[in-house]
Amino acid sequence: MAFTGFIKAIRSFFACDLRANPGSGYCFRLLVSALLGFFVICCGNSGPDDNLSARSVTGRITYKRLPIKVDANGYPIGLDAPDNAEVLPLRGISVRVVYLAQETMQDGSKVDVWRATDLTTTDSRGDYGINLPDDETLPVYLEVQSAFSYSLNNFRTTVRLIADPDGINSKTPHADRVLYSIRRGLDGSLPDDNPTPAVAIKGKVTLDIEIGLDDKWWIGHPYAGYAPDAIIETNGTGSRIAAIMDTFYKAVISFGNPTPSDDDNNLDVHYRRGVTEPLGTYVEYDTERFPLAYNAANGKMRYFGSVRGGPQYDDAWDEGVLLSMMARNSLRSSGVPFRFRLPARKFPGFDTRNQPITINLQPTTALAEGLPDAIAAVALKTPFLTSASGTIVRDIRNAGLPLDIYSAPAISAFTWELALKANGIDSPGNPAAWDDIDPTSIIRFYSLKNESKENENELSEIIDLPSIFTQLARLSENEGVNDPLSEIFTDAVITQMTTPFFGGTIWPRPTEGPLSGFITDWGIDPDSANSPLPSFVFSMSDAVLDAEGKFTNLTSKESSTAKIILTKDKAYWLSVTTVPPLPNGASIEVRVGVNENILSSYLFYTFSSSLPNPQRVVLPGNSDIPFYLLDFRLKSPVSRVPETRVNVRLDPAY
After folding, report:
1. 216 phi and psi, to 5 degrees?
2. What pLDDT shows up at residue 477?
3. d(C-alpha 249, C-alpha 267), whole Å
4. Residue closest to 231 by CA, chosen among 192, 257, 285
5. Can you give the pTM of this predicted structure?
6. Distance of alpha carbon 556 from alpha carbon 407, whole angstroms
7. What does the pLDDT look like over 551-603, one tens digit per residue?
8. Which of 134, 151, 302, 536 is a Cys-bridge partner for 293, taking CB atoms 3.0 to 4.6 Å apart?
9. Rounded to an integer, what distance in angstroms lies between the CA atom of residue 116 and that of residue 113?
10. C-alpha–C-alpha distance, residues 96 and 129, integer Å
11. Where on the phi/psi map is residue 87: left (φ > 0), alpha (ψ -120 to 50), or beta?
């Protein structure tokens, strides 16, 4: 298993085009993501007795999961009975030893202080091993925290499951938000009235833990010094917490990083039984919405998320919902050149009201909306995604209308068919055949990239945005590393497969018309005084309201991308005018790509009736002929703007 994971990781790396992602580290992040499952299994905890001293504790942590019952066709029909609960290994969960030590104060007095060893994590079998303090007289206990963790060299990810009763909108700073924990004395004791069941013990200890369906967790501050202040649940949340955390592990081994960050990779997800946020199960990508997410340790904002905890809906058992959320995170983290900040999808379940916000999308956004559900389905080896523990079911094969490249449901349905084809399964297959799906078999298709070419200076130049066309081209790439995809997905096969899902023949890609490219070329060293730039039209005719009652402004008719090439440093006056004028509350956002793979390096400009126009833009240029992408987007979250012509000028600012 470990060697197979390593081979898949290497194949994923070679499937990435370094020239198409210059200077971004994108391909290497892809390699890291692909390797994570291998390193979690093999390197994070290679065996409970490896590298342990004579004083240590080892064991296995398991949990009971309520499976979702299915009929003969694999269709979910609700949660199974508690008597049929499965006992599964809890993988990637954080474990530490907490002990009582004496600390000498400045006046020479001694005080008792609770301290903790470094965290370790369970492996693919749920096994763990951790050293005990050298002093055999120190009372110690084992603590299993509601935190998922994995690491590769200095690349470490931690996902914490937060127990705050006020949920994601708590007034408590992130560092002080409480976690769940299972606490056991090394003699196996687990008293309900003692948050620190520590005992002094000699030698090596074996301590297995099984988390039951309704076991009670301690709720307390993650800092060990506050251990005595923890309180135990009145009604046990049980293995729901374990199920959520173990789903993060499944995400890692199926498709990579399950968090939205590509640097510190930290995520706080809030879950409390009986608590459901109005926006459902989601991760908020706009960290500015939660000022208390600020992490003073690294000067960054943590990402906050929430999982529905009831009473009507509880997503703890619903891997389809959770994996889809994690897949969206993974897409966002991977250096994908999304045109604008990817929104979190906020909704209370797989219900019909989501359909309008997933069609008529900008081509890259259509992928961002369509792939997550498909990635989740492939990871689960079933086209049926469920919410509310099997009572709400979405069959991702039912694409609905319209059938075109701007439809996220069409992309979801098509991706499922790709997985079947890649695994030698004749469509539609059946539950027995679906079990043979390798979740990593089409991971290359998930790795979005721009279409690029090598210019006359042998530099990679972006010529088009990520779309279904760039991803189809990825399938037929010949990597020369025993990769069967290029042999399976010939042009003839791709043409045959795409036609039912996208409303006509789209492959090979049309060389003329609206599908031939999604970037307008504005030429070299543009100057509006000498050659006017082409205007374009924005329309909100396809715009619909999201779960917050706002327009997302992500349809294909609300954005446009142009490219310019500069042979030398340039200062421009950038002006944007519209006919008719924009109403109050509406604006045109312009993003100038300085480095196409680093979101923070973009330059943002906003034009409205109340803001300066023109605005000064300074861009470096040189003989290597650097190119810049200029993204224009209509933003009107409250009112529907009528059809509007947008005129742009770039005038030298001497």
Report:
1. -90, 140
2. 80
3. 14
4. 192
5. 0.90
6. 10
7. 989 899 999 999 999 988 999 999 999 999 999 999 999 999 764 544 446 78
8. 302
9. 10
10. 9
11. beta
